Amino acid sequence: MTTPLQQLQSRFRIALVDVLGDQVALPDVVVGPASQPQFGDYQSNVCLVLGKAVKQNPRALAQSLIEKLDLADICEPPEIAGPGFINLRLLPSYLAREITPKLGDQRLGVAPVISPLKVVVDFSSPNIAKEMHVGHLRSTIIGDAIARILEFQGHDVLRLNHVGDWGTQFGMLITHLRTAYPDALTTPDALDLGDLVSFYKQAKQRFDLEPAFQIAAREEVVKLQQGDTTSRQAWELLCQQSRREFQKIYDLLDIRLTERGESFYNPLLASVVADLKTQGLLVEDQGAQCVFLEGFTNKEGDPQPLIIQKSDGGFNYATTDLAAIRYRVTQDQAQWLIYVTDAGQSTHFAQVFQVARRAGWLPPTVKVEHIPFGLVLGAEGKRLKTRSGDTIRLQELLDEAIERAKTDLRSRLDIEGRQESPDFIEEVAQVIGLGAVKYADLSQNRNSNYVFSFDKMLSLQGNTAPYLIYAYVRIQGIIRKGEINFATLAPHLELCLGDDTELALAKHLLQFADILSLVTQELLPNRLCQYLFELSQKFNQFYDRCPVLNSPEPERTSRLALCQLTAQTLKLGLGLLELKIIDRM
Ligand code: ARG
User: Fold this and answer.
1) Residue with the larger pLDDT of the pair 169 and 361
2) Which residue minimizes the CA distance to atom 8 of ligand 1?
């Protein structure tokens, strides 16, 4: 099954070849959605684009083209507009025909991609012994949505959690715990993550102030890197502790991830350095091994170095990422690498990608992308922090969302005079509260900063999770009363679409697959959110204008079918955005 846009594209291509032969290469896109409703549903500017190339007046070319265009089963007769645009309006009978087979189809007619790719999505990736902060929450939510959408499209996705589980922080932490809390280094569960974070802060302070501590911490790192058993064991316990805390958040948000932290690549770092050296890319600069970058300059305008190995022999964040790229391409056989982190790491990734390309570790056939995102801001427009200026604990943030959703729900139930069980209240509050946090993040263009506001994200009005889930619940109620089994009815169903709001809803429903491919091209989940929001709005306009349950047949069944497909689309779309839904709320 293909979308109206895809069908129009292919009909246009056939007609264009008919008219122009092989005089000129056709652009990839020959038809697009109309920019304004008065131009119809779809519009083509291909005659304007090609007119020049084939030295023909665009309007005349448009005239020859529509004579060859075979669209009678899809649109009303095409209209030529302005300097040579072609405007297209879909036929109600065509819309009706296209909707029917989607009813009851789990995939809503979206075919998996023809050539699936092996994709690595590197996301979430918090750091051991540090609190997972809202930046990691954004990465987790956006990364998971991207992974889900790619999986739905049929790609083979490896979801990797590149946790920061290696490096100097462990030297400090272990050295400090030896005196401050030795049990933590030998006994599982001796600490929780909150304690670990404050021990880490103390350790950092001592490291900055006490020269003897600094030396001891450095020696500890070396011991750890050399595989000393007690150091290793202490490190392992600290990692387990953090991991357990992270897992609570993942469980709550229903996130699946494979942990492959920085330590995993440790044995591969020496060969990164050696191979860069063999290739002549490595230069020694003040004792450090560097690659001089193309297109990155320092204040003096000189090429900037990327340090691969420090003068003390230690490796950097970038070195690990180089090893990771190599591993992902050669061992995982990845054809597409996606990294979801805050925009502050854009330069890091641009530099690492450049070195990997120059070293031949990223062949031209492998696509690599950093997917940056902006900051989460508090009400005053600064980075979201607690009142005392500390990092917000994610667990508390999510618990608060659920608590607030519960309060909202209880007061609504009171107003409506409804009695519901504690289990019901618990479930609804969880779905709404967590959905609201996820959706607030996903519905923003990820490149911008956004202001975190419980009031806004939990509102039943506007582009929010509660609004969409409520629309779904409302439609479910209508469908239940309608008592029609679409699964058995679908093949024989004939829709009758007459009202403008019915047509607008039907057209929007048929764009679902186009939106998904747009989301994969740009990796912008907010496009899907916008689509679902508009879908709910179009549904509400339809429902205001067209009686459903009280209409005579065949309108009744036809309108119930529109309700059904809207509900299915909301369910699938919200599911791809990792939101749960409920049948009642
Ligand atoms: N641990 C890093 C941080 O907290 C993010 C890691 C992202 N992934 C990567 N391959 N560098 O900022």
Assistant:
1) 361
2) 162
